[in-house]
Design goal:
By secondary structure, this protein is α/β, with parallel strands linked by helices. It has a single domain, classed as Rhodanese-like domain (Oxidized Rhodanese, domain 1), CATH 3.40.250. It contains six helices and five strands. It has a five-stranded parallel sheet. Helix 5 links the parallel strand 4 and strand 5. Helix 1 crosses helix 5.
Length: 129
């Protein structure tokens, strides 16, 4: 928890109300860093990009063979997880990698749901052969 507190002192934390407002305007990329099983079980913020915490640095780095173009879009990125702990650490890491502007949702997906934020289901994919 000390690492989370240190990260939160260095990053921008958005309240759920602020995050909902940005989401409604559509000028941000919401990034869900939770495990895929959490998405299957609980859904996600509509339109959010799923970037598992374990792959995030590789997906952001343009020199990585795993790079995802969404992270070169020049948009504002708002990260979230279940409670806001993983997303605080992820936001700090992304900021250190030069991804800007970045923020995270304080209280995470739990706070989003409790505030009545929209949620879309995530369908399970068939296993690859």
């Amino acid at each position: 928890m000390q690492l989370v507190a240190q990260a939160e002192a260095r990053i921008t934390s958005l309240s759920v109300t602020e995050a909902m407002s940005l989401h409604e305007k559509g000028d941000v990329v919401m990034v869900d860093v939770r495990d895929i099983r959490e998405l299957y079980r609980e859904g996600k913020i509509p339109g959010a990009v799923h970037a598992p915490r374990g792959m995030l640095e590789f997906w952001i780095d343009p020199a990585s063979p795993y790079h995802r173009d969404v992270f070169a879009s020049g948009k504002r990125f708002v990260f979230y997880c279940s409670l806001g702990w993983r997303s605080a650490l992820a936001t700090q890491t992304c900021q250190a990698m030069g991804l800007e502007p970045v923020a995270h949702v304080s209280g995470g997906f739990k706070a989003w749901r409790e505030a009545g934020g929209p949620v879309e289901p995530v369908a399970r994919r068939a296993p690859r052969a």
